[in-house]
Write a structure and sequence with these properties.
The protein is built from five helices and six strands; from the N terminus they run αααβαββαβββ. With about 160 residues, the chain is of the alpha+beta class. Strand 5 and strand 6 form a beta hairpin. The longest helix is centred in the first third of the chain and has 13 residues.
């Protein structure tokens, strides 16, 4: 992949609302070339989706998120793929990753309306799968940074008054 294409991808990853005109100004790539590049990246599946990052802590009825790690016994001939496909179908599952290491094999983020909803989802839908040996759930209490975006505005520096 050439440097120009990588630059365009990085700009879109930082801000999906950038227009081809914006990107053209920032990279000095002609606007028609930027449009053609973005279209070919979408067609190739390199650009998968455009999304907004929401600070759910500022919403009146926020969601509860948790990371769930699972240890699995593999089904002969299928590896992790069959179980991963099954877990991905749940709308509560926001992301799923294969891990390296000894303790856990897969990790996913789950979203629910309450800690109880998440706990019941894990115990009823995930832990009951035949291949799942063990689960570990970690509730997210506060998000400081999401996809490269700092979620809180930095506090303004205030100089302390010094008196003698």
């Amino acid at each position: 992949m050439d440097k120009q294409t990588q630059d365009v991808l990085e700009l879109l990853e930082q801000n999906a609302k950038l227009t081809p005109e914006d990107i053209s100004e920032m990279t000095r790539i002609p606007q028609k070339d930027v449009k053609k590049m973005i279209q070919s990246l979408e067609d190739a599946g390199i650009i998968r989706y455009y999304k907004a990052i929401i600070d759910w802590d500022l919403v009146e009825n926020p969601y509860v998120y948790a990371f769930v790690q699972i240890k699995v016994s593999l089904e002969r001939g299928h590896g992790y793929q069959k179980l991963a496909d099954r877990i991905c179908k749940f709308p509560e599952v926001r992301s799923l990753r294969l891990l390296s290491g000894e303790d856990y094999d897969l990790e996913f983020m789950v979203r629910g309306r309450s800690m109880k909803d998440v706990a019941f989802f894990v115990s009823d839908k995930i832990a009951t799968m035949a291949q799942v040996q063990n689960t570990s759930t970690h509730f997210i209490l506060k998000t400081y940074k999401e996809d490269g975006i700092i979620m809180e505005e930095p506090e303004e520096f205030k100089r302390l008054h010094v008196s003698f």
